[in-house]
Predict the structure.
Amino acid sequence: MDIHLQPANRRDHASAATIAPVAHDEHTTTVPGDALVAATGLRRTYGKGATRFEAVRGVDLAARRGELFGLLGTNGAGKTSTLEVLEGLARPSGGRVRVCSEDPYTRRRTVRPRIGIMLQEAGFPSDMTVTEAGRMWAGTMAAPRPVAEALGLVDLGHRAGVAVQNLSGGERRRLDLALAIMGRPEVLFLDEPTTGLDPESRAGVWDLLRHLLDQGTCIVLTTHYLEEAERLADHLAIMHEGRIVRHGTLAEVVAGQPSRVEFVPPAGLGPVPAFAGVDVGRDGDRVVLRTPDLQATLGEVLAWAGPTTLPGLRASTASLEQVFLDVAGRSDSVDSDSANASAAA
């Protein structure tokens, strides 16, 4: 029997008050005074007239020093469009954005030295070595980390003399991260930072990000790795079709989602009973029980089965994956009607 409990958040004591969407309506806007990153009513559109498309539709968010904000979303949800505005790479079509208390677009010269940016893709001359790329980037900063130190932080020091073109995809991502943190940023924007990394390298990046958070860096992260968000984020926001549709701490985001008990009903045990307050469904040959009280339902299932073994018995708490799939409209389908009919047979 597999029992899957919700992974612990990086800081279980973090609350929605420490990093949260901004209170906003058409009459009032309240931004936390100590927020290093804040957006209220952020909008971004592309094109005009018949080709006009609104990619970001009124996003509110705020993040403080020493906290990681995880921005998740379905493909095309508007994550990267939002991030580009926060980074000062694009002008918002509406709303208000502040990074380090400044407009990151109109005051880019002031904001840029205080932030680090890791884009989904970055490019350097292919024949440039890793050290040369670091030195070139450091030359744009007033007080950068030593190149060797930045490379060491991402475990790339042993590749210092290698040409960029000879790095693996994962090594290039780590080089991008080294350059993003070279200026000791107060705010670090990371767009899919661990794509292409092997599990060991990914764990190393997570450790580095925790270290930066402990030093007071504010991190805004987009990722498709839900485990990454679960492990690191103080606060999560899930975007869909240009809007934030779920937000809060990990516990708050998954609150209200049912836990699950699954098993393959053994022959001869009889129909699955109707447990009080539990939705009984089917997923192929498996019975799936959706319940607000995992412990009570699991106890009832075991009492019903008695000494009979339940093949493939699995119990799991509500998860971020379930929430994400629900938002995406692709939640795993369970045919409750057929299951109930089977139970009544």
